[in-house]
Amino acid sequence: MTTYRLREGNEQDWTIALRRLAERSWGTLPEHLRRRTSPQQVYRETDATARAILNSGGWHYLIVAENEQGENVGHLWVGEARDSFTGIKRGYIYDIFVEPAHRRRGLGRRLMLEAERLCRQRGDHEMGFSVEVNNIAARRLYESLGYRTEYLVMSKPLVDSERE
How far is CA 139 from its chain centroid? Predict the structure, then answer.
C-alpha cells in the first residue's frame, strides 16, 4: 500500500497545478462551447484567469500530495474568496486534482480535510467550491464530508453553432 505525504507547494508545484488546471478545462467544456473555441485558447484563458486570481490579493495555499518516491500526484489550491451575495470572506477551493492512478485511496478526502484545517486556522467560518454536476464520485466525497449544494448554474446555447 502506497503511503502519501501532504506538504506545502513550492513554485514548481504551482506551475504543475496551473498546467493541470488548464489541461483539464478543455475536457470539462460543454460541446456547444468546444465548437466555438480551441484547446489552446481555453488553456490560455484558464491560465490567465488563475494567475489573475493569485495576483488579486488575499491568501492562497497549495497543498501537494506526494507518493513514496516524492512525486507530486495531486494537489488542492485553497484561498480566500468573498461570497457573491453577502461579501463575507470564506475559504474557497479553486482546484483539486489527484492523478488517476492514485484515486480511490483517500487522497481527495485528506486534501479536503487539510484545506478545512487551514481555513479554520485562518478564522474562516465556511469553505466553498464548485464541482461539475456530472462528477458523481467527487460529489459523493464532498457530501460525505458534510458539503451541500447551495447554487446550481444552468446554461442554454442561444445560437445554433452550426449556423454561426
Answer: 13
